[in-house]
Specification:
- The structure is a single chain.
- The chain has one domain (about 10-135).
- Helix content is about 75%, strand content about 0%.
- It has 8 helices and no strands.
- The chain has helices at about 5-10, 15-35, 45-55, 65-75, 75-85, 90-100, 105-120, 125-135.
- The longest helix has 22 residues, at about 15-35.
- The radius of gyration is 14 Å and the shape is globular.
- The relative contact order is 0.19.
């Protein structure tokens, strides 16, 4: 079985289109659980919290990460900029609680999504690794 670092390196080595596909598939898998905890917003607030927490984990937002969000979510850059403006540091804690109370399949989808976001800029920082490991705990 591959180690955590080997799995993360495999993602880092993946091409852009593969990472977009992973993120899109993970979103499809996690959205029903997001709807359960966020029924008034159709799960969008929780899904947004997951994505923005992954982006903000290292404190750096690259142009490639913004493009990735646009491609993965099917949004234009103006919508992505508005989405990013919604970020609040408390979202990461909310995501952690969500994952802690999720079934293993949902947890796996969240981890796939967060890991794809972290890997898109071809490196996973210590902060991103710490966020992913926190979700795993």
């Amino acid at each position: 079985m591959a180690t955590f670092n080997e799995m993360m390196q495999k993602l880092v080595n993946s091409d852009y289109e593969t990472l977009v596909s992973i993120a899109q598939e993970a979103l499809v898998g996690v959205l029903p659980a997001c709807k359960e905890v966020d029924p008034d917003n159709g799960g969008i607030a929780m899904a947004t919290s997951i994505i923005l927490s992954a982006i903000a984990a290292d404190g750096v937002l690259t142009g490639l990460e913004k493009k990735f969000l646009a491609d993965a979510l099917g949004l234009n850059q103006d919508a992505i900029n508005q989405l990013i403006g919604l970020y609040d540091r408390r979202m990461a804690e909310m995501v952690d609680v969500f994952v802690d109370h999720s079934n293993p399949n949902v947890k796996a989808e969240v981890l796939a999504l967060v890991s794809a976001v972290a890997a898109v800029d071809e490196k996973i920082s210590h902060q991103e690794t710490a966020f992913i490991k926190k979700l795993l705990a």
